[in-house]
Glycosyltransferase 2-like domain-containing protein
Amino acid sequence: MKLVSTTLTGSNADILGDALRSVVDWVDACLVIDTGVTDRSLEIAREIAGDKLVVRTFRWINDFSAARNFALDAAHEIQGDWALTLDTDERMELRGEDVRAEIEGATEGVLMVLDAAGTYAKERFFRLPVKVRFSGPTHESFPSYKVGCRTLSRMRFTELPKSPEGYRKKFERDAEVLRRHTKANPKDPRWFYYLGDALQNLKRYEEAIKAYKACAALRGWNEESAWACYRAAECMITLGRYTDAVDSCAAGLTLHAGIAELPWLAAFASWKAGRAEQAVYWARLALPMGLFMGEGHKVKRIGFRHVSALHEGPFDVLRFALRAIGDPAGAAEAERLYQEALKARSAGGGQG
């Protein structure tokens, strides 16, 4: 069973080495795709990977999907059975995961890995040859549901933070690219979601809300559609539109009733609007689908999580809202449960 890591790189000599170090000991080959290297990146890759290094060249055409599909094909060409995707700014942490046992026993075509905070998962391991392809010029999408997928329980990845200027440039690039892509693909909700994400991060909240609403209205993948309502509500709260935020959360629940973050955010928006009694009702609705005192671990979700909302978040609202409506005993109990839930999350309990 040959496992090949695949890494796209331009001139990334300062960060490529640590990315490869995080996998070189447990993969069979490190495939580096040169998309226009002009520095010592390939020399550093050779120093780290040694005889495991394989280099292929791909002319960069401003399309991440094309580059990733090229990498997966190249991994198959060097007799890989599975490919691992690893970006230069990412680091893999096994955390006791037996990757060999997982891929050898897998019936799925894709295995996913959570980020270190447990907030979202990415497709990481791909059975070769792949039967479906990446699509989209940025925030590229792989239809893993067509080949089956599951998330590994222990392994995690981390991503190096960018500078504020680096983030700004990324979001501006994404917004420009996705403006064009949504016009060309007006029926695909995914691109409206990530257009909203880029605009929200650029603090262009009204434009972001419009993009998120377009995503939700297309009613694609229910988890993404519901989360678009959540993200739109975040923007509305920032703009002081608290009632609209509650409405957006309620709309999201009609798309996916298992997203506990939606009633939690509605509770917070209700509290900000001065509607303490409604805040209590919404917060209590969040508890059954959460990960603390709830059954959130039974909700089938791939990504999109606000981890604190799944643990202590509802109690954070309740400890203030209950006091505001004249229930000090209830507020005290909410405070106690808030502290317990916070400890449970900090200890890693209930990642779900």
Notes: The chain has a mean pLDDT of 95. Residues 289 and 296 are 4 Å apart (CA to CA).
